[in-house]
Amino acid sequence: MSGRNYEEFAVGDLIPHALRRTVTETDNLLICTLTHNPQPLHLDAEYAAGTEFGRIVVNGIFTFGLMIGISVADTTLGTLVANLGYDAVVMPKPVFIGDTLHAETTVIEKRESKSRPTAGLVVFEHRMFNQRGEIVCQCRRTALVHRNPQG
């Protein structure tokens, strides 16, 4: 497992994630179908052409989910007890089909769990960027992660 235990995180750690992903039309169609989201801005090219964007905008749930998913291998893979919350989710720029996305994470807070001596809380700030270096999604995630059993 490549995730980190509680003791392996330090406030201020910057974790660049190597995985990059080019968004496809299929990605967007699948997330809209899976979530029953009929928004024409995401599905109807003719409708989307008449909007300020001029083309289909990728469903933000895909962008958010991809950002979190990309972060897991370098943060909580195999060490997560539970995700306790996602806060301050923002999407300052749209994502379009064909955009290539990458992410990074900063540890912004950590504290021992009062109720679980075998775990600690780590607050991450995740950021997703497009190929132009623009932030397209950002959030804070609070994760309860295992402590190192050897101390």
Tell me what the structure shows.
With 151 residues, this protein is an alpha+beta fold. The model has no long low-confidence stretch (mean pLDDT 96). It has helices spanning 25-34, 40-43, 45-49, 60-75; strands at 14-16, 21-22, 80-90, 100-112, 119-129, 135-146. It has a domain at 6-21 and 60-146: Thiol Ester Dehydrase, Chain A (Roll), CATH 3.10.129.10.
Compact overview of the structure:
The chain is α+β, with helices and mostly antiparallel strands. It has helices at residues 25-34, 40-43, 45-49, 60-75, and strands at residues 14-16, 21-22, 80-90, 100-112, 119-129, 135-146. The chain is elongated and about 60 Å long.
User: What's the architecture of the domain at 6-21 and 60-146, going by CATH?
Assistant: Roll
The CATH homologous superfamily name of the domain at 6-21 and 60-146 equals Hotdog Thioesterase
Given helix and strand content, the structural type is alpha+beta
The stretches of 5 or more residues where confidence is low (pLDDT under 50) are none
Record the SSE blueprint:
Elements: E1 14-16, E2 21-22, H1 25-34, H2 40-43, H3 45-49, H4 60-75, E3 80-90, E4 100-112, E5 119-129, E6 135-146
Antiparallel strand pairs: 1-4, 2-4, 3-6, 4-5, 5-6
What key phrases describe this protein's structure?
4 helices; Thiol Ester Dehydrase, Chain A; 151 residues; single chain; 23% helix; alpha+beta; 34% strand; elongated
